[in-house]
Design goal:
The structure is a homodimer of 146-residue chains. By secondary structure, chain A is mainly alpha-helical. The first copy, chain A, has a single domain, classed as Winged helix-like DNA-binding domain superfamily/Winged helix DNA-binding domain (Arc Repressor Mutant, subunit A, Orthogonal Bundle). Chain A contains seven helices and three strands. In chain A, strands 1-3-2 form a three-stranded antiparallel sheet. In chain A, helix 1 packs across helix 6. The longest helix of chain A has 20 residues. Chain A starts with 15 loop residues before the first helix and ends with a helix. At the A-B interface, helix 1, helix 2, helix 5, helix 6 and helix 7 of A face helix 1, helix 2, helix 5, helix 6 and helix 7 of B. Chain A binds a DNA duplex (30 and 30 nucleotides) through helix 1, helix 2 and helix 4.
DNA sequence: CTATAATCAGTTGCACACAATCAAATTTTG
DNA sequence: CAAAATTTGATTGTGTGCAACTGATTATAG
């Protein structure tokens, strides 16, 4: 009756930890770039959705970003305070709150446009690796959505 | 002089976002399992290091987990309050604080041992994909450490 | 040996994340 | 139509993350 094997508990053998560490590290790298346009990372990905769709409900935004209203509500109020978005109830369904870009929010897109390329440089992956990573992460998300 | 191209700003073309979303989703999946042993995810990865090393300084722990003292100090105080670890200053260097497992912290390892396998099932990747993912994330972290 | 620099944990303040709960509006059902 | 269930965003409380700063201790340069 020897010592049981704890290899699966080695930090090195974890799958989640490098994901978690990598994600935080990239966000840390984003910070100085995002500071320049006065956005946090979470605000930035919310703006990404708005730049694509012009206007979305909080619900839809939450689905896109996998975030709930407890995170989004205060964040959207800050974006509104900065004059980047507007928030108003839907006339069709008063429960829904429609978030839309202002002119100022719209024009911020131009300043954000160089950001992705600057970020790509520092991760140091080649095109194939990026492809693989993207595919695997997509598969994981699909598996976990059930 | 047409509309400039904003493809790089599409949420779908982001590399960081799926990493960030995936990481949070896995941690969400961990939660019910970790609740059973009364640990949060961050507390869990701190315990992983302690189960490997028996005792570490806060500084070393921070290096392992890429977390700073602002995150670790309150977290370690909670683990201490639960009776899983002890915290004492190093005699050799009074600036360093040594974190060590208690008997109770040690024995929690047995209950944690089934956790990784349960998690592996729900991510739904095959062995090769896990390998690839692991390799790519390690490479990214190395690139970014400079 | 002493003034200066570096190291380390702790504290503070801000910004998420998210579970749990709530309240208002809408949809479904009998 | 009216009661019940569902949907939706807001609120509250807990737990991170992290930058900036503090204070104590140790290392180092002159």
């Amino acid at each position: 009756m020897g010592e049981p094997c704890y290899d699966s508990l080695l930090l090195e053998n974890q799958l989640c930890f490098p994901l978690y560490a990598c994600s935080r590290e990239i966000i840390r790298r984003y910070k100085p770039l995002l500071d320049a346009i006065d956005l946090t990372y979470t605000q930035y990905i919310a703006m990404l959705v708005l730049w694509e769709r012009q206007s979305v409900t909080v619900k839809e935004l939450g689905c896109c970003l996998f975030l709930d209203s407890g995170t989004l509500t205060p964040l959207l109020k800050k974006l509104e305070a900065k004059g980047l978005i507007t928030r108003r109830r839907s006339e069709a369904d008063e429960r829904s709150l429609i978030v839309a870009l202002t002119q100022r929010g719209q024009s911020l897109r131009e300043q954000a446009a160089q950001l992705p390329e600057q970020m790509c440089q520092c991760v140091g992956l080649d095109a194939e690796e990026k492809q693989q990573l993207s595919r695997i992460l997509r598969k994981m998300m699909e598996q976990m959505q059930r």
